[in-house]
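Deliverable D5.2: sample structural annotation.
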Amino acid sequence: MAKLEITLIRSLATRPYFHRRIVVSLGFHRVNETRVLPDNPAVRGMIAKIPHMLSWKQVEEGANR
């Protein structure tokens, strides 16, 4: 199963409450933090809500990091 490597690239300052909730539910704590999450419809939906705040790429599960 593929995974997504997601990086928070924008600050939460002055963002609406629902944007902050999405960032927290993705597991971010600070800017430039990277998380590897499963590629499923729930995560894709969260990314679609705040694409201006995130950078992401698809990685294969067996890939060396």
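Annotation notes: The chain is about 30% helix and 25% strand. The radius of gyration is 12 Å.
The annotation will be released with the project's public dataset once the embargo ends.
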